[in-house]
């Protein structure tokens, strides 16, 4: 399969590889996918609680070149966005930017899932402990 | 000699035509173009002579007689002809066929089609080393069994099945035995009588011959195997495969067999040496690399390994100047990881991480050295990128993780 130049660029020079401290209350971590499926993405965002803006984003991905490129691109897009704007990122935009072929669309879906999971984790951390307990009971 | 890129290390997929084969074929495209079935002029006679010479070269390589060779378009056609041909010829005797889960699709899908027509097929499992037990074959045979079809060497993991023993079981029970020997003929010693084989498929392009030509060995004595043809027409190939013979291709197949017979021993020593160098160069340097299939009972040039925590297609991208294959789902049209590796009980995550190196006649030491360096560099880079590798380094047992799924 031929890869687009953008996928190759992200694969050769992945942006924002690494980790943020997952115990930091201002860091949200999303871990999506499964090894049996051939894709696992870990995406982390660090939010400034004053401005609600994503100041840093990091990723690590086990997966094909398109999965690596999708998550690398996602971290680029996340930086400087507000949390709400982060949730606006759609997998179709990733497909378009990276020229992903139909068989690779699931890679972009996974990247969108990773963003949502990271935001959810961050929001969960911001929720007061009593409310969490209540949610757990109601769940 | 300077290293030429890209490097070809996918000899199970296909091989380049040996220049000696190509040279032998060349005149048959233009000068000696006669139809081998034209019985009444010089052009036809020369075509026929070339075909019969090729037939003898093939027969000599596999210990058969010339009359037992049926030329086809390749091993897929040969597998179809053998299995469907036997099923259609012997259906009154029984409706049961035995094969194995790790067979090539040309065998499996042919069997599936026969199942739709009412035949019963037993798909034998394999052990974790990829081998089939002759006892399993024996136990699966019933009084309705008309054919056993087990490949000699597997195209993905290179594992060599105990064909002689399976053939013996079939002979004792009076069941016909077909072997898809596409990866074996011309690569390792293959003798139809020593192996007790009644039908054997093979192809030219796997042994440095041209694409589009292959053959089927069909036993003529003890027992005399009969087939219902799939192609009807001029009655070529003793009625088993009509169609004007591919004279040029047959000349190439014959020459490829002749070279294989003369050089197999030396070539195997050399290719095995290169494979071992590659294996050690990778496995001594990188932790958590696993060999798929039996470590010794395999083709000399086959190395199929899984690099844990690295996805196969991303690794292929990292070594994009080396042509190899992966069992990863992402490299297949079906988005399913290799069914062969699954059958071995290799976990799906390791199937996604597998790479098949197929070494052959034209690989060099320099190429292997270069490949070792590239693979090691790419695996290390991708592991630095891998959340799984990171988790394992932190002491997390991945099997205990609750994955979110997709």
Q: What's the layout of helices and strands?
A:
The complex is a heterodimer of chains A (139) and B (406).
Chain A (H helix, E strand, L loop, with lengths): L4 H8 L14 E8 L4 E10 L4 E10 L2 H14 L4 H5 L3 H8 L6 H22 L2 H10 L1
Helix pairs in contact in A: 1-2, 2-5, 4-5
Chain B lengths: L6 E2 L10 H7 L1 H4 L11 H21 L6 E4 L2 H16 L5 E5 L4 H12 L3 E5 L9 H7 L4 E5 L13 H11 L2 E5 L18 E5 L10 E5 L28 H37 L5 E3 L10 E6 L4 H7 L3 E2 L1 E2 L12 H5 L4 H4 L2 E5 L6 H21 L1 H7 L13
Parallel strand pairs in B: 1-11, 3-4, 3-5, 5-6, 6-7
Antiparallel strand pairs in B: 2-8, 7-8, 9-10, 10-13, 12-13
Helix pairs in contact in B: 1-8, 3-8, 4-5, 6-7, 8-12
What would the average pLDDT of chain A be, to the nearest integer?
A: 92
Mean pLDDT of chain B: 96
Percent range of helical residues of chain B = 25-40%
- Element pattern of chain B in H and E: EHHHEHEHEHEHEEEHEEHEEHHEHH
Structural class of the secondary structure composition of chain A?
alpha+beta
Summed up, the helix count of chain B is 13
- Biggest sheet architecture of chain B: 7 strands, mixed
SSE run of chain A: HEEEHHHHH
Structural category of chain B? alpha/beta
Largest sheet features of chain A: 3 strands, antiparallel
Low-confidence stretches of chain B: none
Basic shape of chain A: globular
Helical residue percent band of chain A: 40-55%
Q: Could you give the distance between the termini of chain A?
A: 44 Å
- Please count the beta strands of chain A (DSSP E, at least 2 residues each): 3
Name the strands of the widest sheet of chain B in spatial order. Answer: 2-8-7-6-5-3-4
Using only C-alpha atoms, the radius of gyration of chain A works out to 15 Å
